[in-house]
Amino acid sequence: MLAFEAAWTRALLSTGAVTQDDATKALQSIEAFDPSQTDTLAEGSNRDGLPVPALVKALRQGLADGPAQAIHTGATSQDIIDSAMALTLLAVTDKLATGLRSAISVLDDLRDRFGDAPMQARTRMQVALPATVSLRLAAWQRPLAEHLGRLDTVSNEISKAQIGGPIGLRDRPQGQGDAVAAEVARLLGLTPAPVWHTDRSGPVAMGHWLTLVTGTAGKIGQDMALMAQQGVDELRLSGTGGSSAMPHKQNPVLAESLVALARFTATQQAALAQAMIHEQERSGAAWSLEWLTLPAMCEATGTALRHLKTLLNSVDIMGE
Amino acid sequence: MLAFEAAWTRALLSTGAVTQDDATKALQSIEAFDPSQTDTLAEGSNRDGLPVPALVKALRQGLADGPAQAIHTGATSQDIIDSAMALTLLAVTDKLATGLRSAISVLDDLRDRFGDAPMQARTRMQVALPATVSLRLAAWQRPLAEHLGRLDTVSNEISKAQIGGPIGLRDRPQGQGDAVAAEVARLLGLTPAPVWHTDRSGPVAMGHWLTLVTGTAGKIGQDMALMAQQGVDELRLSGTGGSSAMPHKQNPVLAESLVALARFTATQQAALAQAMIHEQERSGAAWSLEWLTLPAMCEATGTALRHLKTLLNSVDIMGE
Amino acid sequence: MLAFEAAWTRALLSTGAVTQDDATKALQSIEAFDPSQTDTLAEGSNRDGLPVPALVKALRQGLADGPAQAIHTGATSQDIIDSAMALTLLAVTDKLATGLRSAISVLDDLRDRFGDAPMQARTRMQVALPATVSLRLAAWQRPLAEHLGRLDTVSNEISKAQIGGPIGLRDRPQGQGDAVAAEVARLLGLTPAPVWHTDRSGPVAMGHWLTLVTGTAGKIGQDMALMAQQGVDELRLSGTGGSSAMPHKQNPVLAESLVALARFTATQQAALAQAMIHEQERSGAAWSLEWLTLPAMCEATGTALRHLKTLLNSVDIMGE
Amino acid sequence: MLAFEAAWTRALLSTGAVTQDDATKALQSIEAFDPSQTDTLAEGSNRDGLPVPALVKALRQGLADGPAQAIHTGATSQDIIDSAMALTLLAVTDKLATGLRSAISVLDDLRDRFGDAPMQARTRMQVALPATVSLRLAAWQRPLAEHLGRLDTVSNEISKAQIGGPIGLRDRPQGQGDAVAAEVARLLGLTPAPVWHTDRSGPVAMGHWLTLVTGTAGKIGQDMALMAQQGVDELRLSGTGGSSAMPHKQNPVLAESLVALARFTATQQAALAQAMIHEQERSGAAWSLEWLTLPAMCEATGTALRHLKTLLNSVDIMGE
Fold first, then answer.
1. CA end-to-end span of chain B
2. How sure is the predictor about B208, in pLDDT bands with cuts at 50, 70 and 90?
3. Fewer CB in 10 Å around end: N or C, chain B?
4. Do residue B123 and residue D251 have CB atoms under 8 angstroms apart?
5. Which of B244, B246, B278 is the best mutation test for C, with the most CBs of C within 10 A?
């Protein structure tokens, strides 16, 4: 949000809407803001339904009118929150891409180690035909690689600067709305795009991708839990979970977690997608549904990829 | 499914796996199959969990061993069902694209008729600033056009031939699995692609797109229901729904339907995405979740676009 | 719906709001209505968002004013639809209770046949401690019996007559709204209750119970699919599903179906419960969400109990 | 969890399974445990999938074998976690009941203040018939009171002690499993009940009730947001949310929050109910789904009731 406000002030300066001096003082105030002072923002959120009025007030605190007006003027709460969300989601996809690459790489190792080991292929929970571990590993790895490939599409969906002003007209500052929007997007490294304040396809597309990623991790977790069963005996893990009552047991707890995280994430998508029904020029009810779901989905996906790597790295033996 | 079986037999012929004579007789049987005889397939589905064994048996009925073996040999139930689903979903997207184009076109008309009419922009259910009807219309039309644009991505996701054989090895007929797969894909107009029997990203991506489309239709419906309120009076519709108790009332029933269909479709995505957790080489439990949800989502989306067009066409007055 | 209209006319008669002669003619018309003439109702539903105005018009067709007014006068569409839904859901619970009792009884048989057979208890997908089949069977049977016991609560929730008139005031016929409501409830065998037109706790409670029932069936299905695995070998079924590619396979397709139906039903509850957000005195958007979900949930539960019985009856061997 | 362990030790003592001296030392250790040392438990959870093995180890730390064995022996992780969850959920329902009573009471005040004020009843987003504010207030209050009444049923569902030992046989300590279970339940103020380790109807019933409560709050929020619209003008609130771009605006942010919290909670029920498919004698995947959803649902409901009270208390004018 601070990055947005700084870019906004710079864009106001570049279009001549504010003076160099006012902009400099405004930027100093933005830079000096201590984001750990979250009490103010929380209190403001409780009152206003979002933290922006309180943030803007804090940024303008102690400034003369000129510099104060060089902050946020012409923008609206949704501009700053949605653009900040775009920046955050892009950062999240970077981390998740790293997690995907790690998992893919460990799967390469596993194929080298165990790919030729015999293993029964199983369909509909029944032994089908003899195969090797490589068949299963390829079925795990392929979608992970494709999810990486889908990141281009997802990034296109989410990397759009949101700049529309109070009702989405992008008419501020007067006559320069488009110029400011383009400059803010450039400064933030976001795509210039039409206003999307009432079209939530971007966040929903992000949720969809998270659902795919956790879904594949969940498939791997389910497979590994099944492979680790006594009687099936196609997988031995090291360092698995202990039991308070049965010390002899080694539970594939991370594999089970992957299944739970996948089901959790898939379900959140149902709530997130309701946000598409975003009435009029801004819906608090629809918008805040995104905040109740999308961060949790990002965390669940990050956790799933972390667990997936740990789990795959803990394989001692695979195949019969 | 019949198209797949015919393509399969032709591919077996083209690779020399079956003789011209056997293939001809096999194709005659496939062509002669009366798809309205669904009793046989329903009964088989009840027994086997899917209609393919019964279909194959029916297609081979009365054939000598040679022609009988020129049908389905080397394929598996999932190959035929998933490839048939790909063909069906592509046909569905064609119809839905037409619906989207219609709605976009009616919105053009509405902009011409009412775009300059004054209308209050409303944010968070409160009057924000004066605007014109064109602001609202643009916010309805833009995502519809973008959903059309997203069809390229969706088509890429769903138009993949599924050819893997019993466990996904694509090793049948021996030594010619890849050649047959490529030929079947070519004949069906599908993309040759790696086997995706356990990776359900394609169907889930289709569901995601349906969620976006119905979501935007739901947003429009919600807006129109709000605009039609007495006191707001920004919309008058002709031919709206009657009441059994209050004959004076004119209810925006199609607008309400759009909201319901959007919430319904968004929720199905939660069940559909659970299908990603597709254990081992084929999961009946995960797979059949797709059949319980995706057809209903397609129908809901088709209905939504039909209602949307009717509703937009019924606008008598828009704006203050 | 016809039962409601007949009861309504009789209640109008009993309170003196209509004459015996008009009531008799009205009841003759209601009785003579051919419910298979659904075209009229479908067309009316398309126009009005519900079938009641068309139905009332059809019932009054050809009647003089007196008898015509002895039909539906003072009621509203929601009265008839919700009360009819109550009657239907009660009939559904009767059928499902029979299904539950059947499954419980087959489980008694299985305990007699296999209860003492040794079987490993498994926790977190790992062998835990030795046990007998009776442990598993009891864990299947107990919740089914408790779901039967919960039917008292569910019936209380859903068996309420809905009588409120156009906006829920229950003020029609004038001065006799309560008397008519009580009489209609009595005639229909429903509980007299405050109007619940905007409080959808009843349908949501029904959905909750369906979720519990399919959930337990899904747990049994999941267990049976796991028990039937080669290597675990704790279950042998007769007459299971065949494969088009691997004739040697016997797939536990009904067990898998139970899992899919449980996940499907659980997800519908998310859409059904959105119907609680029922704005103002009647929400078409919220109300029709119930019609998109609750019938499908009832069908899924009926199918699940039917499959459960067939599956349990197909057990040849259980235990090691 | 500490309450459970203390009750367990006391029950072991009462049945003679441990000596007075060992029990005393065990209880001293349990009492002395500093629950703020959550690092140990978090680390253990990461390793074992739940905090119990780490907790038991910490409680036994430094004890001789006798007192150490007087802790947890014969119980299992699920006994302690599920019973602790029952205690927690009961405490939650107490708080929520208070919130419901507060809202009901404020609605009484509002009826006294504004009940006779005229207000148009609205159905399907259209003016239906004239009414008074009391009609709307009664429709808000009635389900809240009924949700309070439903607490008896919910409490019955969730207040069951979970005592089954490692696989649910309740056979520990040998020959005294039932006696210990009864005593632990008595000490904790829970109902003695059959083991429910694999039957998750209780938590799902709790989620259902939370869905009903937030649903009604969401209905009220939706109504209030609609009433506050300019043009409808049936509601004036004090102290509503401000806007960063339009200082003149007063946004009904709490009303919108109620809608969002209702949709969020309803959706979580879809994930929670998947926990019914709880395979074998304990499913980490199904069980942990409850932990990902039920606490968030409790928090959302508490927040909704808090917001509801604040919102209702902020009413300045209601009715035309």
1. 54
2. very high
3. C
4. yes
5. B244
Report, as an integer, the average pLDDT of A137-146. Answer: 98
Q: Are C263 and B278 in contact (CB under 8 A)?
A: no
Please give the backbone phi and psi of residue C236, each rounded to the nearest 5 degrees, phi first: -125, 130
Contact B256, B221 (CB under 8 A): yes
* Strand segments (E) across A200-257: 235-237
Q: Does C48 touch chain D (CB under 8 A)?
A: no
- Token pair of A49 as six digits: 């339904």
The partner residue sitting opposite D47, judged by closest CB among A75, A242, A286, is A242
Strand partners for A123: A126, B282
Q: Which two tokens stand for residue A289?
A: 């549904």
Residues 6+ apart with CB under 8 A from B313: B106
Instruction: Give pLDDT, residue D73.
Output: 96
Which of C232, C244, C264, C288 best probes binding to B when mutated, by most B CB atoms within 10 angstroms? C244
Question: Which of C262, C281, C284 has its CB closest to that of D121?
Answer: C281
Number of residues written out for chain D: 320
The answer to whether the CB of A121 falls within 8 A of the CB of A131 is yes
Residue range A207-252, pLDDT digits in tens: 999 999 999 999 999 999 999 999 999 999 997 777 777 777 789 9
| Tokens 């009471």 sit on residue | D105
Q: What is the distance between the alpha carbons of residues D207 and D266, in angstroms, rounded to a whole number?
A: 9
pLDDT band at residue B38 under the 50/70/90 scheme:
confident
Residue in chain D lying closest to C288 (CA): D124
> Percent of chain D scored above 70 by pLDDT?
100
- Report chain B residues whose CB lies below 8 A from the CB of D233: 231
Query: In the structure, what pLDDT confidence band is assigned to residue B246 with cuts at 50, 70 and 90?
Result: confident
Q: Which spans in chain B are helix H?
A: 2-14, 20-32, 38-48, 52-60, 65-69, 77-114, 133-158, 177-188, 201-227, 253-274, 284-313
- In 3D space, the residue among C164, C156, C191, C86 whose CA is nearest the CA of residue D149 turns out to be C156
Nearest-by-Cβ selection for C270 from A123, A127, A270: A270
In this prediction, residues B156-180 reach a mean pLDDT of: 95
Partner B contacted by D269 (CB < 8 A): no
**pLDDT of C248 above 80:** no
Tell me the Ramachandran region of residue D19: left when phi exceeds 0, alpha when psi lies from -120 to 50, beta otherwise: beta
On the 0-12 / 13-18 / 19+ scale of CB atoms within 10 A, A314 is: middle
Residue C33: pLDDT band with limits 50, 70, 90: very high
Query: What radius of gyration do chain C's Cα atoms show?
Result: 25
Q: What's the pLDDT at A28?
A: 98
pLDDT surpasses 80 at D242 = no
Handedness of CA C102, C103, C108, C109 (dihedral sign): positive
**Distances in Å between the alpha carbon of D108 and those of B128, D111, D138, D302?**
33, 5, 9, 21
pLDDT in tens, D180-199: 999 999 999 999 999 999 99
Q: Longest C-alpha distance within chain D, in Å?
A: 78
Instruction: Provide the number of CB pairs (under 8 Å) joining chain A to chain D.
Output: 142
Distances (CA, A) of A92 to A295, A302, B205: 10, 8, 21
Q: CB contact, 8 Å: A256 with chain D?
A: yes
The pTM assigned to this predicted structure is: 0.97
Q: Could you say which of D47, D285, D292 has the minimum Cβ distance to residue A256?
A: D285
D154-184 pLDDT, tens per residue? 999 999 999 999 999 999 999 999 999 999 9
Question: Which residues, in sequence order, are CB contacts of B104 under 8 Å at separation 6+?
Answer: B141, B144, B145, B148
**What is the rounded average pLDDT for all residues in chain B?**
96
Q: What is the pLDDT of residues A51-88, one digit of tens each?
A: 999 999 999 999 999 999 999 999 999 999 999 999 99
